[in-house]
Amino acid sequence: MASLRIKKPSTRKGKKALEEREPKTIENLKKTLIMEGRKCSNDIRQALRDFNMLKKPNSRMMRRNNDVTPFEDATPLEHLAKTNDCHLFLFGSSSKKRPNNLIMGRTYDEQVLDMVEFGIDHYTALEKFKTEKISQFTKPVIIFNGYKWKLTEELRRIKSLLLDMFRIDQIDSIRLQGIEHVLSFTLADDLTILVRSYRIQLKKSGQRTPRIELVEMGPSLDLSVRRTKIASDNLYKVAMKQPAILKVAKRKNVTRDELGNVHGRVHVGKQDINVLQTRKMKGLRKTAEEKRQEKLNKQRRNTASGDASMEEDVDGESNEEMDDDNGEE
User: Fold this and answer.
1) Share of the chain above pLDDT 90, in %
2) Among candidate residues 195, 183, 194, 193, the one with its CA nearest the CA of residue 226
3) Residue 14 vs residues 9, 11, 17, 21: alpha-carbon distances, Å
4) Residue 282 — pLDDT band, cuts 50, 70, 90?
5) Does an H or E element contain 302, and which?
6) Closest Cα to residue 103, out of 94, 92, 111?
């Protein structure tokens, strides 16, 4: 029973650490746990270091090898992620059966949600590109190339995982000079994912808008999908659920396009122009000729209606006389 007892924090620092881990309306930035397996090749070690450089300071890299097999038993990995307060993880290992193995995944409610195993077919380290690097805390522009990303549910989950892994923060406005880094994920015909990293250079163009050039700065990886473990649709739906406070209330007949422009649709009933009040304006008043013509038209209508009523009376009297004659006969 002692193990089930909840131990309350005894210091202010411990209480603050527990409050940071509690659920929030706007969650903290997701940290990534980077760790090595029992055996690792030089390419895997260097790739994990490069990913750590790209994700600093939102990453935690373990300093020793860990005897963990995520696809067979993910309990040790879930414990390490909980201890280090990380919701994303990168695990590298290498064996005769699976050389240069890279496992990427994320957790929800202290359990593994999605997990994908990649094989690194080709790798070029960050230090081998003799170009200028980006500054720290730079938010990357993430691009997905290829039409096959939406063909299957598995590829859609991999795309969501990559976006969740390398996206640093959601921003509302950007500054042109602050865009320095581009991450490109291209899905080839043989379902190989080509990962490329570029640095953006702004050069003079003779106009107000500068000319943009991309210079590859590394790392460069060719990833092949080996094994996947994705969450069920119900669990994935629960994990993606947002608080009611953050949901934007739907406005009727108002839509927003892909560029963020708002389009509204207004429904106007049929209007009768003759009923509109426009006489208060001096320029819209009736002239004397229009008034005389309107008076004459009114008299004609009255005369026509009087003649029609007289004809009806005559017709009625003739019908009554015919009825009387029939009765006498």
Assistant:
1) 32
2) 193
3) 5, 5, 5, 11
4) low
5) helix 288-328
6) 92
DSSP per position, 199-232: EEEEE--SSSSPEEEEEE-S-EEEEEEEEEE---
CA angle 305, 311, 317 (to 5 degrees): 140
Contacts of 64 (CB under 8 A, 6+ apart): 36
Length of the chain: 329
Calculate ∠ Cα 276-278-280, nearest 5°.
Answer: 140
Q: Pull the structure tokens for residue 299.
A: 């008299």
Global pTM reads 0.70
Side chain identity, residue 141? V
- Taking a C-beta distance cutoff of 8 angstroms, is the pair 86, 62 a contact? no
- DSSP calls for 17-83: HHHHHS--SSPPPPPEEEEE-SS--HHHHHHHHHHHHHHTTSEEEEEEE---BTTTB-HHHHHHHHH
CB 52 within 8 A of CB 79: no
CA–CA gap between residue 55 and residue 77 (Å, rounded): 20
Structure-token pair, residue 241: 């659920």
